Amino acid sequence: MTTTTVQPGPITGNVLLYSQPEPLSPELHGKLGVVQSDRPFGFAKPGHAVPLTVGEFPLAALTGPIIFVGDEKTPIAVMGLNAGDNMFVRDDGMFEPGVYIPAYIRRYPFVFAQDDEAKQMVLCIDRKAEFIVEGGEIPFFDKDGKPSDYTQRCMEFCNNFEQERQRTMAFVQILKDLDLFETKTANFTPMNADGTPGEPQKIADYFGVSEDKLNKLPTEKLVEIRDNGALGQIYAHLLSLVGWDRLIALAMARPAQEPVAANA
Questions:
Q1: 174 - beta bridge partners?
Q2: Is pLDDT above 70 for 63?
Q3: Does 260 reside within a domain?
Q4: Residues β-bridged to residue 51
Q5: What pLDDT does residue 7 have?
Q6: For residues 89 and 121, is the Cβ–Cβ distance under 8 A?
Q7: Mean pLDDT (the chain, rounded)
Q8: In this predicted structure, what is the pLDDT of residue 16?
Q9: Are 175 and 54 in contact (CB under 8 A)?
Q10: How far is residue 94 from each of residues 86, 98, 114, measured CA to CA in Å?
């Protein structure tokens, strides 16, 4: 994938966690760079539901639920029960130890966006990122206006992310073609003061793989998705769903908050 830094057209669409995406160019950003931040992941605090690529499923499953949302059945890492609150990002802008950080977050402040006029993807930065400043210790461009080593590494990471995103779309299409999706509900049953179970509360509605449909697949289809790697990722998704209990436990440890629908 290529990028452009020459008079890019308007960028369309909203991008989760990005406040002001701008096409990266030496004309606009030649004097800018990044500095070390005391709160490196503070920007991710509002990300209670973060897009995930299929290759991340095994590691992300150790942190919390992996669900599918929307008409496109986009894979999402659920990282909080309340909209706008990533439960794994501490007040100091760091992630809790041992939590998997999705690549979507790790690529920040860079992102690819659609240039409608040029009909191509362009590399952007979030101009509102608090660690992007004029004269930053790690510049975006060198003195000749060429991308710095830092920018080139980040561009490569974004390229790899885009390739993984395409692979993820192919994986989801396999699940659609096999009709494996079903609507699922995450519930929470609080305890009454006398120790008896209270009324169940709905946490979220989402799409997930039906174990019943999976088990009824013909042998040749099971072999096919085993050999192309899809079966392992399906199991990672199914195992991740026990992570709802972890999120509920974390929410219960916060007296000022109650679990509500994630609306992921």
A1: none
A2: yes
A3: no
A4: 76
A5: 41
A6: no
A7: 89
A8: 92
A9: no
A10: 11, 11, 30
Q: What percent of the chain has pLDDT over 90?
A: 77
Rg (the chain; Cα; Å):
21
Please compute the mean of the pLDDT values over residues 190-194 and round it to a whole number: 76
Distance CA 87, CA 260 (A): 13
Instruction: Write the CB contacts of 177 (distance below 8 Å, at least 6 apart in sequence).
Output: none
Q: Is residue 213 a part of any domain in this protein?
A: yes
Question: Tokens 């109650």 map to which residue?
Answer: 258
For the chain, how many structural domains are there in total? 1
Quote the CA–CA distance of 152 and 154 in Å, as a whole number. Answer: 5
- Asked whether residue 15 is assigned to any structural domain, the reply reads no
Report the alpha-carbon distance of residue 252 to residue 264 in Å, rounded.
20
Q: In the predicted model, what is the mean pLDDT of residues 9-37? A: 85
> What's the pLDDT at 193?
76
For the chain, give the percent of residues with pLDDT over 70.
90
In a domain, 163, yes or no: yes
> What is the token pair recorded at 197?
């179970």
* Residue 107: domain span: 21-252
Residue with token string 């060429």: 146
